[in-house]
Amino acid sequence: MSAVAEGRLLRRLIQAGARAEGDAFREVAAEVIQQERSKRHHLLANDLERILYGEQSAQHGNLHPRPDVPKDAERGLPLLQFTLPRLSLRDLVLSEESRAPLAEVILEQERRDVLASYGLRSASRLLFFGPPGCGKTTGAEVLATELGVQLATVRLDAVVSSYLGETAANLRKVFDFVEHERLVVLFDEFDSVGKKREDPGDHGELKRVVNAFLQLVDAYRGPSVLIAATNHERLLDRALWRRFDEVVRFDKPTSEQIRLLLELKTRAIPSELQLSDSTLMNRFIGMSHADIERVIVRAIKNMVLTGREVLSMDLVIESLRREDQRRLALEVEN
Question: According to a count of CB atoms within 10 Å of the terminal CB, is the N or C end of the chain lower?
């Protein structure tokens, strides 16, 4: 049977079973999807997940809450949120210095059994740092896609508790859970739990949280890849840096990276943009990846809403003007 025919059969099977809403079927279907991901059939796996979990959850990228996910004792909030990863390495515009360690981690994870046969562990603890909007969260999603696993983001609004000792207890629940699951686990805004222990404003709880994280990450031997991401790396406790197998810096894009990013974001639509035009490129210098994407998406929306068929320079210039206004408003607010 060809791969196309097999994919068509799997879609029909899961459509039929999903309508029956049997728990046993869903467990088996989830296992089938995981196998397809392990074969790097990511598009098929994403389609099957949309069928199984519902189109609405897939549109927003979030999977339905899982009953086994640990919760915060204070408020009953789930400590992890699961997301369908969709982005691949080709969607990530980075310098070679930043891309290379990600590619190495992917290779080590894919051949972790080979490394284990030599008594070696694959890299599984990563620190992403750099300015906001420069691809740290995207990098975590790309790793999840390439490894064929779900992205689990640690909900710091649930983990950080006002109760003495509860934050450390919540972190322990997260580590206990991911010890038995193969996931990419993202600790976003990591500085909120990994701040320097000599902080003069600390009354002891911060030290307990950092000490707990150090002990948990040292003891961790599970199959998941752990990623800590921060915009404020100078706030991190020095002892934390030594716990990571790879440290990856995410910077604002260079001129060449801006050109690649614009190519990526406009590849699906007719465009008159001259990406070799230095005047246009210079307008984007100093922006983050997220800023550039917002400008292009806004311009494309205006193209669609005004009934135009081609993305032209004037639409992008108008969107850039709006972005300047937005930035000024934020500066005034801060």
Answer: C
For residue 95, the one-letter residue type is S
pTM above 0.85, yes or no: no
Residue 229: phi, psi to the nearest 5? -125, 135
Q: For residues 300 and 268, is the Cβ–Cβ distance under 8 A?
A: no
In eight-state DSSP terms, residue 89 is: G
> How does DSSP classify residue 201?
T
What are the pLDDT digits (tens) for 266-288? 988 899 999 888 888 899 999 99
Cβ atoms 170, 98 nearer than 8 A:
no
**Cα–Cα dist 268/114, whole Å:** 40
Could you give the domains of the chain?
3-60 (no CATH), 80-249 (3.40.50.300), 255-333 (1.10.8.60)
Strand ranges in 69-200 using DSSP code E only, listed in sequence order: 80-83, 125-129, 151-154, 184-187
Backbone angles phi, psi at 123, to 5 degrees: -60, 130
